[in-house]
């Protein structure tokens, strides 16, 4: 088990490590959660040509600028390779896997227009501008409804990132709680192993 | 009233040794052959199908209940983890369309024995009397062919069978609950404080979570993962309550069976069983009668996929009513920021609710209303809330680091039933080769006004409680309708007892038959409706004889 934090930001919960509680989790939950700390398997869904762009997209969406990253690319790849969708698609969108391929190709096409390179080779700020352009687009982007592409990207990225115990430690979340449960309910009450927010007056970020 | 032990026998059927599933009961379950002509084949083991199966099994009927998903074992199959609970949802392909398409899957579609109640929050309010007379009272929607009084005795039964915990209920038809309310966590405290300051009536409950140990079901441990399947057996679902009882009385629950079409005898005009796929092999379970309880998407889909010479446009679809009047509730959520730590993930997400805005208020520019409830999303759900504000990258991460300071409350808005909100079948097929469901949904003007009004009230409550900032997301919750009951065949698919107008030995039991939805979570009403269908069946000669 490797305690950790995803890269970036200030540490609001100094010393808090949700994994310190893993010995009190049930065996099935433990296997599922600790499995996310294993070395990522080889990619099965994204092709060699798509990997750099997909990786850069997820780094942008979750602001992961250096290692050790939460392996969002690998986690999304595993889902897409298994066809593990949420059980629906918009009528004007292809299935999730196909939509990821098209949108990754779309980012590369945008990057080629802007700078003559693939998206993954752009500097961070230029990547961010192209991502932002999709977010603010109110119509179609690369023949896809932009808002629904945005929803697809953020849904898969957030589900992967916030399923990882490093992200739980970062946000102070107590994590799995069976069979132990929670004993101290209520405002400003913590379990003895939870850590108080060290900076509760931190200003909220600008969008 | 029967003794608690007789009525709630299932609470003593779960083991008392720290494990959560009665393996002996499952191992020794009665098993029928496909060629046994059972009295009733039930399609779907969720809120409706499970109650129906249990009632008929207790009366000695030979019943097979088929479910497309697995027979869950909480020890082995449930985890204290959001992403790891993906398998609890119906994730077979579906297409969503319309001007306001409704995402399916995690939030509203269950899979496996227990159905959506395996991962529902646990709220079990009744409908109000007005929900049954919406057309008469408000000139919108529909009147049911039954009244609240017809369902009331079943509400009372089911509230004891689950059982339900909560404070005395002042709204709709005022009533009490069998179990006392639970203590509340930070999120519930915020709701109670804000509402009280504004003079808005609120109550703790009603939740189908035992308050204290109940039989062999342990006390809730306030772990907060109600929506991921209760590992404790404290939260009631048919998996814990009505299914074990059904097995103990000789019903068969056959899991991993995808019913592909209802078998129909063109000569007699009666159904004679169900075709289903198990492990890729096609079977036909023979039955003297069939009850479909597949909820609001799969029930219409199965009827539409069961076409033939007598029903060229889908079974029971003579009047183009199958799939129509599908409803979802508008379910906006508002998060409020507090300098104190709320840590909303502790305690069950369902804690406190209010129906103070449920009924039509003539002073308002809209009809019908909404209910308010605490919701307390876990990190992944909350990240979608934050991302829904347009935050991404560093801003998303920054808001998420602030997670423990936010309280989240939600509303359920009574969106009106409209004929063009419906399920049809798409050209796309699933892995079995069956046409997938296509759900078309568009909101009306009244619906949008309700969402606005509900959002304003939630923001006011959070501000009154001391929130410094708020964030709002619009979303949907629950499904009902799609094969509604009606007084006449031209207006619906089934009659006042759930029997199809077109086929005398085909019943629908469950959420698909509801003509309106109110602002209440539908689980208890779906169960009560199924219990009423069961009483109707039991009042007839057995086996069914025309």
In whole angstroms, the N-to-C terminal distance of chain A is 34 Å
Oligomer: heterodimer
Shape of chain A: globular
Contiguous runs where pLDDT drops below 50 for at least 5 residues of chain B: 542-546
| Strand neighbour order, sheet with most strands of chain A | 2-3
Characterise this structure.
With 207 residues, chain A is mostly helical. Chain A is built from seven helices and three strands, in the order αααβααββαα. Chain A has helices spanning 27-34, 48-62, 72-81, 96-115, 124-136, 146-161, 165-171; strands at 89-90, 140-141, 144-145. Chain A has a two-stranded antiparallel ribbon with strand order 2-3. In chain A, a hairpin with a 2-residue loop joins β2 (140-141) and β3 (144-145). Chain A is globular and about 55 Å long. The mean pLDDT of chain A is 96. Chain B has 546 residues and is α/β, with parallel strands linked by helices. Chain B has helices at residues 4-7, 10-13, 23-27, 47-58, 74-77, 134-138, 148-161, 186-198, 242-248, 295-304, 379-387, 394-401, 445-464, 523-538; strands spanning 40-43, 63-66, 95-97, 203-204, 252-254, 258-265, 270-278, 281-286, 290-292, 327-330, 333-337, 352-354, 370-374, 406-413, 422-429, 435-440, 470-473, 476-480, 506-508. In chain B, the strands form five sheets. In chain B, strands 4-12-13-14-11-17 form a six-stranded antiparallel sheet. Chain B has a five-stranded parallel sheet with strand order 5-2-1-9-19. Chain B has a three-stranded mixed sheet with strand order 3-16-15, with helices on one face. In chain B, α4 runs parallel beside α14, α7 packs across α14 (523-538) and α8 (186-198) crosses α13 (445-464). Chain B starts with a helix and ends in an 8-residue tail after the last helix. At the A-B interface, α1, α2, β1, α5 and α6 of A face α5, β3, α8, α11 and α12 of B. β1 of chain A pairs parallel with β3 (95-97) of chain B.
